[in-house]
Design brief:
This protein is mostly beta strands. It contains 1 helix and 11 strands. The strands form 2 sheets. Strands 2, 4, 5, 6, 9, 10 and 11 form a 7-stranded mixed sheet that branches. A 4-stranded antiparallel sheet has the order 1-3-8-7, with no helix packed on it. It is globular and about 40 Å long.
């Protein structure tokens, strides 16, 4: 059974940093697409950062470029989202997701959340000014 467990959310002041983790079980990283998404009440889920083994590229939403970084540790079967210079507008519930077969480019996965197969429960990030 595929499971994703996100953690690491919390409250931080603007300018601070957080690292989100997403521990995966039931499959191994490799030849997949992984990503982080976020959602605030009343808004659609937004793709923050995605990696697809199809194109080997990393996609970042314009709003987080230069501040966030996605990574994975295949040995630990864990993916991360390193968030720096946080802003109040980064406040959201953050979700990790995976597509078991990388059929599309990184940007496609982030722009089409329905292309992901499995989702973790969200972790709340609150950034205060």
């Amino acid at each position: 059974e595929v499971q994703l467990q996100a953690s690491g959310g919390g409250s931080v002041q603007a300018g601070g940093s957080l690292r989100l983790s997403c521990a995966a079980s039931g499959f191994a990283f490799g030849d997949r697409a992984i990503g982080w998404f976020r959602q605030t009440p009343g808004k659609e889920r937004e793709g923050v950062s995605c990696i697809s083994d199809l194109d080997g590229r990393t996609f970042y939403a314009d709003s987080v470029k230069g501040r966030f970084a996605i990574s994975s540790d295949n040995a630990k079967n864990t993916m991360y989202l390193h968030m720096h210079s946080l802003k109040p507008e980064d406040t959201a519930v953050y979700y990790c997701a995976v597509a078991l077969v990388a059929n599309y480019a990184s940007s496609y996965y982030c722009q089409h959340s329905g292309s992901m197969d499995y989702w973790g429960k969200g972790t709340l990030v609150t950034v205060s000014s």
